[in-house]
Amino acid sequence: MCARSHKQSTNLIASVLTNRCPKCRRGKLFTSGNPYNLKTTLDMPETCPVCGQRFELETGFYFGTGYVSYALSVFYLGLSFIFWWLFIGISATDNSIYWWLGTNSIILVFLQPVLQRLSRSVWIAFFVRYERGNKAVI
Predict the structure, then answer these.
(1) Three-state SS letters, 62-74
(2) H or E element: which one contains 76?
(3) pTM for the structure as a whole
């Protein structure tokens, strides 16, 4: 019928958001599915269990994820500021800006494990190309 085959790959955005291997878009990047298990939140296998792609391309490869994590945090803060401004309002005469800052500080602390994983997924997707079969696809 309309069932998807297991060999059919997802698109780039979906594979990044679900933390999949950028080469085959099927293998899992992280050993644990739970980002809030803080002992294993960033544990990754050496290679993809499906296609064998190495996940650490060179020593210190993931140091650049700090920039991606920063950009994701700023993007989130920008969106939340716009929504806060539209739905709650920000004024110089009340403390709404401080409520926004406090609320977002707490939310970002709890989002940090998810943002760390997402930034690793985005970072490796910049450097590893998707391959359908044996041909590299841009």
Answers:
(1) HHHHHHHHHHHHH
(2) helix 65-87
(3) 0.80
